[in-house]
């Protein structure tokens, strides 16, 4: 099948989607032939796919340097970045080297950032192996590590040379992670494409059963939708912000529960229910459509209630100043199903009420 | 005086050069009004200029957050970068904040890299206070930190919003650092501008005596010459490499002696004598012109001999593979005075003989 393209001028790149792509040496060749290629992956993914990817890269003419990092969000840290840089320098990788990020969102964010700063920037290829990474984090060039004071506080916009989404890798994904990825798929339908949303309502059971045709379509349509937004606003100066639908609430849930307790997609799921509730209260979404959002998220096996944190705690974590209660705040709302809008004039008490309705 | 411009499309920026510019609030206003501005500086520069810069920035409408780092090359490290990021987050600096780099090359490289990665990139302003930084490192957008395995191995191309070179700050510069800066000024004449080189031969005593008119001209012409090269090749895929004239030898000297033992400019000075010697041996520079190079560098009070390291040690540090002896290597040579050329076909034994002639 033809790859999608993310249209970013001289930084445009293809997204290849299909089953079994990992092994297609000729797909890598144009990027890696006679170069050093550092494959950054973690200790969970390596036993599953490293050997196959290494074999394909070598077949394409690359010298492969595997670099293993820890699994989990805590790997997005200075120490891991230094470890990757050290491994590349030790292997005498020069400015024409390429980094391959083989794994989920953490590997992609960390390895992509390493590529952004190694010798002031080298090329990288995303091989996302989780649904979340395939439909979201691998597309758009956002890379980052975390800081003690906040997630993704240090990073770069660094577009990959290519994204290779092998949907067959989703067969090894734990159920919980599959569902967490579906949260972002649903998000793309909610904010951008009513038709896709209706398809999801029809095909949810097939997706959960990992039907390969359904999965490939969900990944492809999600990437298409995200690629359009990214092409219009690479550095998030405007439109791209709508991709954060549900995320302001979601980040508060992740931070409030301690990172890793709720998966990102789970927190976003409950966050989207809150954001839909807020949309209904603000008058931009019909009540029955807010109920449809909640029902679909529930059918995906995702949380439709937020954790029972104090509302002031939510607001603090969302960095909605308590003084703003009575004042105005900015949120991304649904403007009907399939369309999002950024509203800067919301009464803060609506936010408070929406959290209360969903979290308690 | 009209600022120079570095022509890089939508990343173009002005270089303001003059005495007393530090205090000109209206020059900062367009970049900093109603923003948070983190002034990154070190413990040597802060007592001299921080209060004045802070006052001018506040007058221009900024909220100023001073961030102090250690003096010296060892500050170009992960730990310092984390310290800067932490200070900005603690002060709740958002994505519209600006970093001001107030100091020499170390401050500029570190603070510029912090700006490149803080929340995926914010704006920064260079206020170089050493001659080396004013004529070289503040122009061109190269930012970096060091790694145990090599200098500037982690960094980004991140162009500043503006460069403000206040030549009056050179009055507080130690003599040795002034001379180290003159090495890069001489380099610009050697590789790009015979007329400027002849001006330097006439005006060297005035420069060493810190004549303000002579200093301003040396800074201005150096910046003009470098800006042209950077505009033609922002990411050093070709032409920009000529700015590294003398630097391959120089880096070997810095690394071989231990960083900080020789100043960068001193190592480059001896490195340029070696590169001129190599040019003469390769037949691209007349013997008497190589002697002129050496004489001018000597008159600037800079080293005209390299340290007495083993030649194999030089080659190792220059990453010229010993197996290449008898083979071919790439070097930047002078193609007559005022012109440089990249030669990929040099006999490695010429490199060996040139080092021997200058170092021992």
Q: What would CATH call the class of the largest domain in chain A?
A: Mainly Alpha
- Chain pair forming the biggest interface: A-B, 28 and 28 residues
User: How many domains make up the 3D coordinates of chain A?
Assistant: 2
The chain-level structural class of chain A is alpha/beta
CATH homologous superfamily designation of the largest domain in chain A? Dehydroquinate synthase-like - alpha domain
Number of helices of chain A: 13
Ends distance of chain A: 47 Å
CATH topology of the largest domain in chain A: Dehydroquinate synthase-like, alpha domain
Q: What is the annotated CATH architecture of the largest domain in chain A?
A: Up-down Bundle
- Give the low-pLDDT segments of chain A: none
- What's the rounded overall pLDDT mean of chain A? 93
Number of strands of chain A: 11
- How much helix is in the residues of chain A? 40-55%
| Morphology call of chain A | globular
Sheet with the most strands: spatial strand order of chain A: 1-2-9-6-5-3-4
Largest sheet of chain A: 7 strands, mixed
Note the quaternary state here. homodimer
Rg of Cα set of chain A: 20 Å
H-E order of chain A: EEHEHEHEHEHEEEHHHHHHHEEH
């Amino acid at each position: 099948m033809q790859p999608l393209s993310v249209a970013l001028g001289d930084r445009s790149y293809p997204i290849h989607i299909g089953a079994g792509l990992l092994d297609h040496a000729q797909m890598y060749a144009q990027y890696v032939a006679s170069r050093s290629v550092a494959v950054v992956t973690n200790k969970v993914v390596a036993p599953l796919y490293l050997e196959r990817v290494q074999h394909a890269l070598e077949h394409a003419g690359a010298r492969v340097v595997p670099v293993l990092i820890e699994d989990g969000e805590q790997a997005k840290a200075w120490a891991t970045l230094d470890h990757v840089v050290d491994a590349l320098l030790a292997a005498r990788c020069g400015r024409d080297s390429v980094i391959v990020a083989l794994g989920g969102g953490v590997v992609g964010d960390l390895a992509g950032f390493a590529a952004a700063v190694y010798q002031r920037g080298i090329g990288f290829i995303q091989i996302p192996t989780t649904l979340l990474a395939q439909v979201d984090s691998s597309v758009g060039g956002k890379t980052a590590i975390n800081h003690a004071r906040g997630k993704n506080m240090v990073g770069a916009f660094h577009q990959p040379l290519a994204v290779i989404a092998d949907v067959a890798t989703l067969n090894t994904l734990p159920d919980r992670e599959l569902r967490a990825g579906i949260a972002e798929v649903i998000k793309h339908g909610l904010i951008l494409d009513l038709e896709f949303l209706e398809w999801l309502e029809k095909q949810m059971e097939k997706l959960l059963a990992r039907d390969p045709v359904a999965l490939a379509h969900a990944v492809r349509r999600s990437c298409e939708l995200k690629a359009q937004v990214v092409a219009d606003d690479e550095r998030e100066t405007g439109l791209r912000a709508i991709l954060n639908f549900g995320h302001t609430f979601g980040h508060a849930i992740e931070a409030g529960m301690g990172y890793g307790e709720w998966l990102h997609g789970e927190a976003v799921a409950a966050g989207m229910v809150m954001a839909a509730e807020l949309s209904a209260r603000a008058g931009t979404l019909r009540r029955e459509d807010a109920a449809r959002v909640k029902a679909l998220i529930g059918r995906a096996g995702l949380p439709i209630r937020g954790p029972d944190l104090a509302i002031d705690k939510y607001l603090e974590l969302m960095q909605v100043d308590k003084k703003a209660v009575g004042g105005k705040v900015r949120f991304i709302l649904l403007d009907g199903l399939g369309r999002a809008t950024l509203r800067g004039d919301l009464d803060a008490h609506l936010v408070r009420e929406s959290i209360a309705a969903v979290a308690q």
